[in-house]
Write a structure and sequence with these properties.
The chain is an alpha+beta fold and 455 residues long. The chain is built from 16 helices and 12 strands. The protein starts with 22 loop residues before the first strand and ends in a 13-residue tail after the last strand. The relative contact order is 0.16. InterPro entries: Metalloenz_LuxS/M16, MPP/UQCRC_Complex, Peptidase_M16_C.
Length: 455
């Protein structure tokens, strides 16, 4: 009998991706418009994105979220009920927030749908009644998360990593929300919902020559606001590895996050090696952290790592919800795996598997209108090369195990990492104190506090 050939099939050539370049124009008010004609389906999508730099809200944190929730809840052109009924009748989908709007519909209704989008986005009717409703909802949500260990952990992670005075580190409380008035929401909208840093991406079964005059008519009267730009001190990583502990007496497991801030841009040469290194450490089922903490030890349902990249400082975070009794042991294993990816070359088999997964997901997404819109926007806002996405697969394929090591050593700063743990102090502090890692205590808002008494 002939032996069965169980060798893996050789991968074929990477697919070639051809992304249509948008046709562009700009209005006098600063709005930049990108149009991609795609006549495969009789549909069109609109994405309006305001690319303002982040800003802190200080004692009125929550004003931007309230503004976001109120935009689209009524406008000055037609009643709220008539607006919603017409959107339903047209089979359209329209969404609004404080940083833009989006819509999709059959192309034969594209003109009216774009007009409805401008009604909601450019002519909002902020009423006291709607404001009171949304404020009550947010206050209720804050109360419901008062003892939520995951919510507490996420809040403190950002506060400690970025600082309470940084836009990425501040958080909403009942006090800051109660400081916000309807006048504050209107002022926030006027100052930040403006055309000068805004992009309108239109993709689908439309013609450039036909849609251009419509856009000019609908958006031409949108006035510039000269949005204020505030510069913030860049957050600094801690000078040594340390545990920052938040005592949550009702916790039934420990939320562990290892965090450091990074400055990684999509245009950087090491963007792809850093992204792939992140995936290898904690991106999927076969990642180092998941295989260790879940498969080998059974301490968790899953562990993951995420990395931020963009124009502004972001963070690298590895985290998991860990069984309380294994908290100190899990900290040791987290550190071990991060040191491993910094010192040990990833196997060629795993690297090929991860790269193949990246390429597969990219190819699957690239046909979607929202994806094409996001890519077109990224090229503009992230200052990417015009052929960035055409070369996406090529650049992933070119990443080597040596590149992974280099990127991991640059961004996975284990010697400057906060190990932030939210858990039941009485059960886990004695074990953590034996690790010989400096241990500091914080309350559930990220403020330094004393070591909790353990009974």
């Amino acid at each position: 009998m002939q032996a069965e050939n169980r060798s893996q099939p050789k991968p074929g050539k990477p697919p070639v991706v051809n992304l249509k370049k948008p046709q562009t124009f700009a209005l006098a008010n600063g709005l930049k418009v990108m149009i991609v004609e795609n006549h495969k389906l009789p549909r069109v999508t609109f994405n309006l994105t305001i690319d303002n730099p982040p800003f802190a809200e200080d004692s009125k944190k929550g004003v931007d979220e309230l503004c976001s929730n109120l935009i689209g809840s009524g406008n000055l052109k037609i009643t709220k009920d008539d607006f919603n009924e017409e959107v339903d009748f047209l089979g359209a989908n329209i969404n609004f927030n404080s940083h833009g709007a989006s819509a999709s519909a059959l192309s034969k209704y594209s003109g009216r749908v774009l007009q409805l989008l401008t009604y909601g986005a450019l002519y909002p009717n902020f009423t006291q009644e709607e404001f009171d409703k949304e404020k009550a909802k947010l206050l209720e949500a804050i109360k419901s998360q008062e003892k939520n260990v995951s919510a507490i952990a996420n809040r403190v992670v950002n506060t400690l990593a970025f600082g309470i005075d940084h836009p990425a580190g501040e958080y909403i409380t009942q006090e800051t929300l109660n400081n916000v008035t309807l006048a504050d929401v209107k002022a926030n909208y006027t100052a930040h919902f403006a055309p000068e840093n805004t992009y309108l991406v239109i993709i689908g079964d439309i013609k450039y020559k036909e849609v251009k005059p419509i856009v000019e008519k609908l958006f031409g009267s949108w006035k510039r606001a000269n949005t204020p730009i505030t510069n913030y001190t860049a957050p600094q990583n801690v000078p040594f590895t340390q545990i920052n502990f938040i005592d949550v007496p009702n916790a039934v497991q420990s939320e562990i996050s290892l965090v450091n801030t990074i400055d990684l841009k999509m245009a950087d040469e090491d963007f792809f090696p850093a992204a792939i290194a992140t995936f290898i450490l904690g991106g999927d089922y076969n990642s180092y952290l998941n295989m260790n903490l879940r498969e080998e030890h059974g301490w968790t349902y899953g562990a993951n790592t995420s990395i931020g990249a963009g124009k502004y400082v972001s963070k690298l975070k590895s985290n998991s919800s860990i069984r309380t009794t294994a908290t100190d042991s899990a900290v040791v294993e987290f550190i071990k795996e991060i040191k491993r990816i910094r010192t040990e070359k990833v196997s060629e088999d795993l690297l090929k598997e991860v790269k193949a997964g990246y390429i597969g997901r990219f190819v699957m997404q690239v046909e979607k209108p929202n994806t094409i819109a996001r890519y077109a926007l990224n090229v503009e806002t992230e200052e990417l090369a015009p052929d960035f996405y055409e070369n996406y697969i090529k650049r992933i394929t070119a990443v080597t195990a040596k590149d992974i090591l280099k990127a991991a050593n640059k961004y996975f700063l284990i010697d400057n990492t906060r190990i932030i743990i939210a858990g039941k102090g009485a059960d886990v502090i004695p074990g953590l104190e034996k690790l010989n890692i400096p241990l500091f205590y914080f309350d559930k808002y990220g403020r330094p506090t004393d070591r909790p008494s353990i009974k």
